[in-house]
């Protein structure tokens, strides 16, 4: 076919491109259908070569000259003979081509079908991509976009939704590769929610993906250990993470060290806090008010001597040139409320003792270190020796090293430390915070420190404490006033002083504050004063709650008071819970009033308030005879009804549901 086209072009004198000419010559040579008959071949041999040469005006330029059967000789090449033996010799120029695309109706049909099939496949892929795009979130689906969404959900207390968004949408649907900040924000949320296992599960997955944790990640992990409901599990995870960081020689930042201090303060003990603080200072970090915040938190762990330890830490903080902040004052107040002072003699010697004359030699030996040390540098070694004093070391004949070291931080007194009568202590008891600040003050013994009010008096009482805060430019908040209400001496004057402080510092008081005042008065046995607080709450438009009546229940010494309390709760539209009944049972047990106890148990069953473990322990104690009581030799009016109560109590246990009492 191509040969026919070529011949037609030659006869008509039309142009023909070089590739077509070459293919036509090749096809004519190889195809048997294009073989020339003998007569025609012979006739062509007698034709003049000029018949095959186009007219000059029809000669194509360039490569189109190759369509003629006799090519123009190249410069320098031997001239070929002019006979017909060289016809088709141009096919040698394309002999190097290995494949040729044939064109025909069948071939074009196959190509058309392939193109249609390819277009259909492309359209299906486009449709699938569009459907997938519809299923995907329509926001900016990047790693940082997911970080912002998770942060927003965690702030809204929707941690589980944030975890689902990360694991399902980001990893499974979007198939994005998470970054370090995606894990860190989720670990922080798990830590604040107390989900320790989930926090470390995310951390392990982060390491499997080859991501490097940063300070914020480790800070979030240590916070998760501190906030864990299981303090033992939190401590174990924190110790493992510490060992891992030491193996890596990873240098923690100050913020991460503070998180580690918080973990040990919550889950361990004060010595672990001191050990971590020493490492922090050795690595070049500087102690701040927040550092002492965690030291004071560690003192809270020791309920027996925590208040004395807190005072020593406070004194060292002042000597280091660090001004306490509001959190430090709040924690000092908490130790005064919740912790004891330990051995009064040791506490008096440690907190009020004067520096000894022979201490000068020790100071002279360490002058070089003292001069090179900055004023605001924390001497952690000295603080550790002062805090952990053995309780009998101050009674030795010679002044022991522990005693001398324990008094290094106390300003030099003006006279000998002579014990004063106990009754004169309350009238002239110094404010220890003034003494720690280096102010002139007479040195006295501590005397008897029995309760929270006595410990508060050592630091100036409520008024002196607030004055110290004002001197440092600090104002009390609601938490501070609530702690004072739960610590100071109960009474109308104390309440009025706190109300004035709240008005002065623009603090809006809530039900929790007034509940603390009521609880303090009720425990002191002044039920009328506790009820008087209710009128103050009504004047300030503060609504009562169940905790308000639970605080009042602590003062219900008699049965009629308890019944009146339950009636008042019903009038207020409140239902007594197990804590209200526990308070009433505790007062009745203290008085050994078994008629009172029986009435409370009957009311509990009628109101379907089921007892908890605390109530069961209270009732078990109330149903036992006193150890030294012999009902056949003596008579006790309160114990006359014990046998009847014991029988009723056993029957009461049988029909009360969901009880699992052993023994």
Q: How would you describe the overall organization of this protein?
A:
By secondary structure, this protein is an all-alpha fold. Among the domains are: 2-54 and 62-69 and 85-93, no CATH class; 139-268, Alpha Horseshoe (Serine Threonine Protein Phosphatase 5, Tetratricopeptide repeat); 556-663. The chain is built from 34 helices and no strands. It has helices at residues 2-12, 18-30, 38-45, 105-135, 143-155, 159-173, 180-192, 196-208, 215-226, 231-248, 254-267, 270-282, 289-299, 306-319, 326-338, 344-352, 359-365, 367-372, 380-387, 401-406, 422-428, 432-436, 452-458, 461-471, 478-485, 492-504, 511-523, 527-539, 546-553, 559-571, 578-591, 594-607, 613-622, 642-655. Helix 6 (159-173) packs antiparallel against helix 7 (180-192). The radius of gyration is 48 Å and the shape is globular. GO terms for molecular function: tRNA binding. This is Pentatricopeptide repeat domain 1. It comes from Pleuronectes platessa. Residues 120-132 have a biased composition (Acidic residues).
Quick summary of this structure?
The protein is globular. It has 663 residues and is mainly alpha-helical. Helix 25 packs parallel to helix 27 (511-523).
Features of the shown structure:
663 residues; mainly alpha; Serine Threonine Protein Phosphatase 5, Tetratricopeptide repeat; disordered C terminus; PPR_rpt; TPR-like_helical_dom_sf; Pentatricopeptide repeat domain 1
